[in-house]
């Protein structure tokens, strides 16, 4: 393969300049700024006289806000599990079988790109008294507060929001698999269930794992869903705490430290998504 000439390399480097500038200005510098604020006392950085306190804000985060960190992990993990259970059969049906309203189901997969406001506000109204699920409350003789403002409501919102991502990941993986492999297993005497577990499932494992990690990582930064559906207790996650510390407590140092923890978790999840997918392939 012929190596590019000096002029060709220069053109490539010039073409990369806008990308490098974009990443530097809107990714690297903001993260460094947040990290710098996390080393200062309360709002001293914002007031123009930063008072550096070292890692004391991080110590406060892991002592006073450990519950928020735990909830930020548990709720997305539960939602990703629900997405995997529901998303795999749906992806298989859309890819390998002809189902009713096939195009409508595919079109619905773009719904999350409109944002989580529609899901959180819509579910919030449906769970309220007089909403769509009001007959369920009367039938089971329970209060709406036993559903709304609980972890179950948050997991439901998260899973609905990220289900299309799981379906897209697994569908993409299924489309790369030659259907003749499954047909060959059936020809050799395997039952459809055995052919699925011995042929299809192992080959779609990378898509399933990548989809699981992507759903988990996407919901790590969820704000409106836990705020509206979780209330004070079930909505105790890092994103809600960051906004509370910033706008009401004005403790920008601790809020920035909590943000750094959240960013680190998100970067780690993204790295694991690419790494695990590469290894499994």
* Element order: H for helix, E for strand: HHHHHHHHHHHH
Characterize the largest beta sheet: strand count, sense, and whether it forms a barrel.
none
Mean pLDDT: 86
Beta strand count: 0
Low-pLDDT regions? none
The N- and C-terminal alpha carbons lie at a distance of 26 Å
Relative helix content = over 70%
Structural class: mainly alpha
Total number of helices: 12
How does this structure look, described?
The chain is mostly helical. It is built from 12 helices and no strands. Helix 3 crosses helix 7 (151-175). The model has no long low-confidence stretch (mean pLDDT 86).
Short synopsis of the structure:
With 281 residues, this protein is mostly helical.
Give the tags.
281 residues, mainly alpha
SSE map:
Blueprint: H1 6-37, H2 56-64, H3 66-96, H4 102-107, H5 116-127, H6 134-140, H7 151-175, H8 179-187, H9 192-220, H10 224-230, H11 238-249, H12 252-280
Helix pairs in contact: 1-12, 2-12, 3-7, 3-9, 5-7, 5-10, 7-9, 7-10, 8-9, 9-12, 11-12
